């Protein structure tokens, strides 16, 4: 029987989602806790691989349970939350068909990247402080350009083990939340490693006037990571939603 676990986490203390040989990961914590509670070795597969320091308001992982054992899913979620670290919270556990896959059955993912332009001690942990004059209208024009392309090799971390750099971006827009704070929302069917932070860094270059919209197109079409902007800090990036 296959189950989905819906949960969230603050990624500050972790070396990303995926199990690492020399650092703690969210996957390791979830796997260990499930194995303890279900009294058998449990392996979990996540909907994606967030990098070190990246957060998730919504994350999904699946696991398989052999035999015909049954358990109270609400009780399991409650016990998971009692044992897991305080920076990981389970929303629910639900049964799904064996064909459902946390990663490959997802039809879209949405990320938010948060920035603020005035020193704020209450934003510093989860938002990137910038003090540039930014042209958000131009940055949104560049965001719309993203939705007209499919190959995003320019924003893929060098030497990544990926079979394809094709993604379908359906939304890419900056949204203002106060006089000094914004977030960038991007939705796609899949994302490449480090893609969102590289996209944001390149859009910041557009907003600062370092890149024109034509230059931005050339960066995408060139498919070279060295031509795109810098990768922005991880602490301001959140996986916001996953759809199936």
Task: Please give a structural write-up.
With 244 residues, this protein is an alpha+beta fold. Helices cover 24% and strands 27% of the residues. Helix 1 (26-38) packs across helix 2, helix 3 crosses helix 4 (195-207) and helix 3 (136-146) runs parallel beside helix 5. The two termini are 19 Å apart. The mean pLDDT is 96.
Write down the Rg: 19 Å
Helicity, in percent? 10-25%
Strand-residue proportion: 25-35%
Give the biggest sheet: 9 strands, mixed
Return the average pLDDT rounded to an integer: 96
Uncertain segments are none
The tally of beta strands, per DSSP, is: 9
Give the terminus-to-terminus CA distance: 19 Å
Taken from the alpha-carbon principal axes, the silhouette is: globular
Element order: H for helix, E for strand: EHEEHEEEHEEHHE
Structural class: alpha+beta
Number of helices: 5
Summarize the structure.
The chain has 244 residues and is of the alpha+beta class. 24% of the residues lie in helices and 27% in strands. Strands 1, 2, 3, 4, 5, 6, 7, 8 and 9 form a 9-stranded mixed beta sheet that branches.
């Amino acid at each position: 029987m296959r189950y989905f676990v819906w949960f969230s986490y603050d990624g500050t203390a972790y070396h990303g989602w995926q199990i690492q040989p020399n650092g703690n990961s969210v996957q390791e914590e979830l796997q260990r806790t499930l194995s303890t509670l279900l009294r058998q070795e449990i392996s979990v597969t996540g909907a994606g691989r967030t990098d070190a320091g990246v957060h998730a308001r919504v994350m999904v992982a699946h696991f398989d349970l052999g035999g015909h054992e049954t358990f109270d899913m609400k009780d399991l979620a409650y016990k998971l939350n009692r044992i897991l670290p305080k920076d990981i919270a389970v929303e629910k556990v639900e049964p799904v068909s064996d064909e459902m896959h946390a990663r490959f059955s997802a039809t879209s993912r949405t990320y938010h990247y948060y920035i603020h332009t005035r020193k704020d001690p209450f934003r510093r942990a989860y938002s990137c402080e910038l003090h540039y004059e930014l042209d958000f209208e131009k940055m949104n024009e560049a965001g719309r350009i993203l939705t007209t392309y499919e190959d995003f090799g320019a924003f893929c971390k060098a030497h990544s083990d990926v079979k394809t750099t094709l993604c379908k971006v359906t939304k890419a827009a900056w949204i203002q939340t106060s006089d000094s704070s914004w977030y960038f929302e991007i939705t796609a069917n899949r994302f490449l490693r480090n893609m969102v932070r590289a996209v944001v860094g390149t859009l910041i270059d557009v907003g600062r006037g370092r890149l024109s919209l034509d230059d931005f197109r050339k960066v995408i079409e060139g498919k070279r990571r060295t031509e795109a902007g810098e990768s922005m800090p991880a602490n301001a990036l959140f996986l916001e939603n996953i759809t199936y």
